[in-house]
């Protein structure tokens, strides 16, 4: 058995699991038993974060980057929730599980998942580092803008006044930009996009 092929196959399985979880969650919330699928969101994020770490376990720099995204996201969100800076005035509901300083740990995991996946995708679309960074930030902000209107309904989080302010999106750019810069400038290459880079080792 070719060990390298075996590893790639394992990574592919992990990536497929992540996409199946996300796709089934979206379909379930929109067209099925929404309450049941919403209750599974913590499991979805937990599994996705675990698999993200697992498929990159042999690449120390990437693991450090993943956890840097996690802690950066947590610190910024803690400042946001408790001091009203960066994103605006908002608070988290109970749907995302255990909290530290009023911020669910899964929010840190979500920052890591979004940063790596959006950066990896942008890396496949452009050759220019600047374009990669801009696209990665754009994708992250767009994903946030899609979920913002339904977040209060799902008991994820809610802004004062019920609507995310412009400050929230500017805050996302402020946090996402340096993370995307780190990914592309220091060339943290995730196994998330290994199938587009056959010479990756």
Descriptive overview:
The protein has 201 residues and is mostly helical. It has one domain (3-196). Helix content is 66%, strand content 5%. It contains 7 helices and 4 strands, in the order H-H-H-H-E-E-E-H-H-E-H. The strands form 2 sheets. It has a two-stranded antiparallel ribbon. A hairpin with a 2-residue loop joins strand 2 and strand 3 (103-104). Helix 4 (60-83) crosses helix 5 (105-125) and helix 6 (129-147) packs antiparallel against helix 7. The model is unreliable at 1-9 and 192-201 (pLDDT under 50).
SSE inventory with pairings:
Blueprint: H1 3-31, H2 34-39, H3 41-54, H4 60-83, E1 90-92, E2 99-100, E3 103-104, H5 105-125, H6 129-147, E4 157-159, H7 166-185
Antiparallel strand pairs: 1-4, 2-3
Helix pairs in contact: 1-3, 3-5, 4-5, 4-7, 5-6, 5-7, 6-7
List keywords for this structure.
single chain, 201 residues, mainly alpha, two-stranded antiparallel ribbon, 4 strands, disordered C terminus
Largest sheet: 2 strands, antiparallel
What structural category arises from helix and sheet content? Answer: mainly alpha
Oligomer: single chain
- The proportion of residues forming helix, as a percent range, comes to 55-70%
- Residue-averaged pLDDT, rounded? 80
What fraction of residues sit in β-strands?
Answer: under 5%
Please indicate the count of domains. Answer: 1
Q: List the total number of helices.
A: 7
Write down how many β-strands occur, each being a DSSP E stretch of 2 or more residues.
Answer: 4
**What is the N-to-C order of secondary-structure elements (H for helix, E for strand)?**
HHHHEEEHHEH
Shape descriptor reads globular
Which spans have pLDDT < 50 for at least 5 consecutive residues? 1-9, 192-201
| Biggest sheet strand line-up | 1-4
CA gyration radius, whole angstroms: 17 Å
CA distance, first residue to last residue = 18 Å
């Amino acid at each position: 058995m070719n060990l390298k092929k075996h590893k790639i196959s394992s990574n592919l399985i992990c990536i497929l699991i992540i996409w199946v979880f996300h796709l089934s969650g979206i379909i379930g919330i929109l067209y099925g038993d929404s309450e049941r699928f919403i209750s599974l969101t913590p499991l979805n994020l937990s599994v996705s974060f675990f698999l993200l770490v697992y498929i990159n376990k042999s690449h120390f720099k990437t693991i450090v980057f993943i956890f840097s995204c996690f802690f950066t996201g947590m610190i910024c969100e803690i400042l946001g929730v408790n001091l009203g800076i960066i994103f605006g005035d908002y608070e988290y509901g109970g749907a995302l599980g255990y909290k530290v300083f009023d911020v669910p740990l899964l929010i840190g995991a979500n920052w890591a998942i979004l940063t790596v996946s959006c950066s990896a995708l942008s890396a496949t679309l452009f050759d220019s580092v600047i374009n990669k960074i801009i696209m990665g930030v754009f994708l992250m902000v767009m994903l946030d803008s899609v979920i913002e209107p339904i977040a209060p309904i799902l008991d994820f989080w809610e802004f004062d006044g019920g609507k995310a302010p412009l400050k929230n999106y500017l805050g996302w750019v402020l946090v996402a930009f340096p993370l995307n810069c780190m990914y592309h400038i220091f060339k943290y290459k995730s196994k998330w996009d290994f199938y587009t880079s056959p010479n990756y080792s």
